[in-house]
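User: I'm putting together notes for a lab meeting next week and I want to include a structural view of one of the chains we've been expressing. I don't have a solved structure, so I'd like a prediction I can at least talk through. The sequence is below, exactly as it appears in our construct file.
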Amino acid sequence: VQLQASGGGLVQPGGSLRLSCAASGLTLDNYAIGWFRQAPGKEREVVSCIGSSDGSTFYIDSVRGRFTISKNNAENTMYLQMTSLKPEDTAVYYCGAGPPWYWGQGTQVTVSS
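Assistant: Thanks for the context. Below is the predicted structure for the 113-residue chain, given as structure tokens.
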């Protein structure tokens, strides 16, 4: 099983990024999927997820209305579209699928002017 995250980078406040996570060895549609992030000195937190049973979505309050999670079953890939980025969004972002949970390697997002 492999989850390959990509799309991070350096962006100015107010900018946008789209993170991608390509899965191999498992079918994302059979799992709950989510994006998580870990900022320096802080614990990893969930950012957004899609439930496996009903496809319901969840966002933490700080990103609701700015971030959009999605997946493409044909490509077995999940995405996180991030807009109106803020410096406090700076973190390493991880994609995950489970349970049992599998994790991508993380991609750095830095929001700074």
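A couple of points you could mention at the meeting. The chain is about 0% helix and 50% strand. The longest strand covers residues 17-24.

User: Perfect, that's what I needed.
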